[in-house]
Each structure stands twice: as C-alpha cells, then as structure tokens.
Amino acid sequence: MKIIYEDKDIVVAIKPPELLSQSDSKGRENAVSILADMTKGEIFPVHRLDKGVGGVMVFARNSAAAAELSRQVSDRTMEKEYLATLCGEIEEDKGILEDLLFFDRNKNKAFVVKRERRGVKKALLEYECISKGGGRSLVRVRLITGRTHQVRVQFASRGYPLEGDRRYGGKGEGDIALRSVRLSFLHPATKEPLTFSVE
Fold it and tell me: What is the mean pLDDT of residues 2-9?
C-alpha cells in the first residue's frame, strides 16, 4: 500500500492488485489492516475494489468521516474512473452500458439478468475508447453505480471480457486489466472538492 494523501479524517492510498480491500471471514491481510498499521490508528472502509483490481481508494479515519463518505458513495456524488483493457476491438467508441445485475455469493460471480427480482440491482456506467488494435481495446470507464464485478461483467456480457479476467472469459495471464485511476469527492469535514489521479 502506498499512501498518497492523509489528514486527520481521511487516507487516500493505492491498493495493489491481489490485496483484499477489507477484512474477510478468513482474516486475511487486507488494505484496512495494513493502513491501520501504517497510520497507527483506526481505518474505516467506505468503498471497495475487487481483489484482483488495483488503484486509488479513499478510507476514513473516524466514524463521522466514514458516514459522510459512505453517503457520497450511495448518492453517487463520489466519482470513480477506471482504465480497462478489453479482449476484442469494441465497435462503439463511447457509450453508456445499463444492465440488471444479480450477484451470486455462492459462485462469487455476477450475472446480467432480464428482469428485476430480489437481489437484482441496476448497473450503469459510461465508457470511452482511448485506443484499439491488435485485438484489444483500452477504455476509460466512469462508474455511475458501484456493483460487485460491475465493469467486468457488463463488458464481458457484450463479448468484451477484460484481459486477464478468467472468471468472466478473459484471456491472458496476470492480473485483471482494470485499474482505479481517478477518484473525486468532497472532503468529509471541510467539503473541499478533492481529486486524486494515478495513471
């Protein structure tokens, strides 16, 4: 973990791929526990990245900051931007993807479904293709909703799985080709607009 900003209310850090965002039932090492050791204080998670995905994240250092940042996540005022490498050359250079997603906890996999029912959530993202060629596309993604495996399953369901994402049909070795590159939000105490980028 690399800390790129901290004050008494928040910590912004770069999570490496293959590290859990927060604790799980097995008690494995995770971003929250590492940051708590690094800062010698309490750390509160307010959003997450999939284990195989790296990039910029914000964490709260007290319950008041956690509540305010969580509110920004839930009301979609926290902006999250990603870079993803897709298998295949995407036809539309920009667009909005909208789906209904169901996450099966037993299979640890999300599915696009046709109708609303219990456990189904709407998923929405915008994307723009930066470059394509050689059977690959590099796209910039802005999440509008934040569903589990959302970017991965929405592109895979259209025939463009992420490179390295074998769970959803992607080819290639190594980490999933998805990285959180930009995060914008209001500071939970001062309300100052903050943006952090890593590219």
Answer: 96
50 labelled catalytic:
yes
Encoded amino acid at 108, one letter: N
Which pairing describes strands 54-60 and 178-186: parallel, antiparallel, or unpaired?
A: parallel
Q: Which long-range contacts (CB under 8 A, 24 or more apart) does 93-96 make?
A: 93/128, 93/129, 94/126, 94/127, 94/128, 94/129, 95/126, 95/127, 96/124, 96/125, 96/126, 96/127
For residue 97, the cross-strand partners are 125
Tokens in use for 83?
Answer: 């870079």
Q: Report how far apart, in Å, the C-alpha atoms of 193 and of each of 63, 73, 78, 108, 140 are.
A: 20, 15, 10, 35, 22
- Which amino acid, residue 143? L
Q: Which helix (H) or strand (E) holds 70?
A: helix 63-74
For residue 161, the Cα-to-chain-centroid distance in whole angstroms is 16
pLDDT band per the 50, 70, 90 thresholds, residue 119: confident
Among 80, 197, 85, residue whose Cα is nearest residue 139: 85
Check 50, 99, 165, 175 and give the catalytic one: 50
pLDDT 10s digits, 13-71: 999 998 998 877 777 889 999 999 999 999 999 998 988 899 999 999 999 999 999 99
Tokens found for residue 182 = 């930009």
Closest by CA to 55, choosing from 168, 197, 170, 154, is 197
Quick check: pTM over 0.70? yes
The counts of H helices and E strands in the chain are 3, 11
